[in-house]
Amino acid sequence: MTTSSIQPLPATFAVGSMTKPGGIDIVQVPTPKPGYGEALVRIEATAICTWEQRSYSGAQENKFPFVGGHESAGIVVALGPDYRGPLKEGDRVAVGGASCGACHWCLTNQDRVCTRHYSGSVSYDCGWGPGGFAEYKIHPSDGLAFVGDIAADVASLTEPLSCAVHAARLADVKVSSDVVVIGAGTMGLMNVLALKQRGARVIVSEVDAGRLAMAKLMGADICIDASAVDPVEAVKELTEGRGADTVVTAIGHKVANDQGLAMLAQRGTLVLFASAHPETPIEISPNKWHNNEKKILGVLSSEKEDFYIAARLIRYGLVDVSPLIQGRYPLEKLSAALDQSITPGCYRIIVQP
């Protein structure tokens, strides 16, 4: 592995600021120096996530101006004073969550709940946010994962893969267990990759033929065309009438949640992976869930363990996330990148400063 050469730092750098739904400005901000526990990263690639998509389309409320981009990879160009970790200037890294290492949550191996988890967020005159739509950003050094020589656009998908690794770990998915993923968008397919790493038999339920084909390409064992058959009955038939041990709803929608509830086996776990906009409450029978010992599990983001695992999976070629990259745009064309990202059926669009 070779490190990248470090170029002299500019006095200012470009930032893509979302001023309102559908509105983007490219502005210059002063280049900062990293403090204790921080690193300055030259961003090479940032994938557009559903948070940015919904903010841009107006489907989700946000506080504007907003500097999006939390699925990022880049080069460490400076490390803060007294840094003693393994990273070096010139290393390519993926950007993830941070932690304090000393609070209750960190000391009980639950660092996603640490108040410093999102401490990599930026605050400029032109907006706040995770800050990946920019040429540079300051980030906690403990929230960076070395990715070696893997291409930056591929490495930027470490963070979303880590969320799926997190979900599979919290759901305690067993080898050979039957797991259904409802929805074969980008995050549904990230779940397919993570679940296959745990040895599950993965069944994908989706209404779109193109996405079903992609699910098969990404490793799904069985694909159900939910536009042609009843997915609940199909899952029951595939599992000798038991239902699925785990169901991951990768779509934030009432239909997906209702189907997930109905196809779940006794002692099964329903994983609410996607947020819902608009939000519809889930209706359950407490006695049925009590008698059948079923569980509902919400998952959000990931922890350091998951992020490290995701970085290793990508770095060593144990998974291939590259089919999920559908387009690449320079930062100055951020508006066009976001426009494509919100088209139906789109996978990940990469912004390359």
From TrEMBL:
One Gene Ontology term of the molecular function aspect: oxidoreductase activity
Domain Alcohol dehydrogenase-like C-terminal: 187-314
Domain Alcohol dehydrogenase-like N-terminal, first and last residues per copy: 37-144
UniProt keyword annotation of Oxidoreductase present: yes
Gene3D superfamilies the record matches: Medium-chain alcohol dehydrogenases, catalytic domain, NAD(P)-binding Rossmann-like Domain
Keyword Oxidoreductase: yes
InterPro entries, A to Z: ADH-like_C, ADH-like_N, GroES-like_sf, NAD(P)-bd_dom_sf, Zn_alcohol_dh
PANTHER family (UniProt xref): L-THREONINE 3-DEHYDROGENASE
UniProt protein name: Unannotated protein
Species whose genome carries this gene: freshwater metagenome
Organism taxonomic ancestry: unclassified sequences, metagenomes, ecological metagenomes
